[in-house]
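Sorry, any thoughts here?
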Amino acid sequence: MTEETADLVVIMITGPENKRRLPSAFFLAATAAAAEQNVIMYFTGPATELLKAGAAESIYPLEGGKSVADFMKNAIDNGVQIIGCRQSLELNDMSESDLAYQDMPLLTPSQALPSLGSAGKVLTW
């Protein structure tokens, strides 16, 4: 977790079950980060599945368009910090070794919520 208070937190709950909804969250996060805001995306519940190696690369919100991995990369390249929910890994039959980003922080909700809740703005997606 960053020591600096986040300007924007996006709590990602939506996962592969609603692929057309995903790009907007990454666009908003990337745009805020590009505007020099401190942005965190916390992936929990079904959204944790997007963090599995190879998963985001195989999800296309629009046929012939960009993959969710492309949207995620754009957000990360603009400075968005990605954090995964440790408890959601088990709920999604995943382990840390399944993650695409091996250096990504993993926090339980009780570890994450105090810092996430102190952000200037919090969106759930």
Notes: The chain has four helices and five strands. The radius of gyration is 13 Å. Residues 28 and 47 are 16 Å apart (CA to CA). The chain has a mean pLDDT of 91.
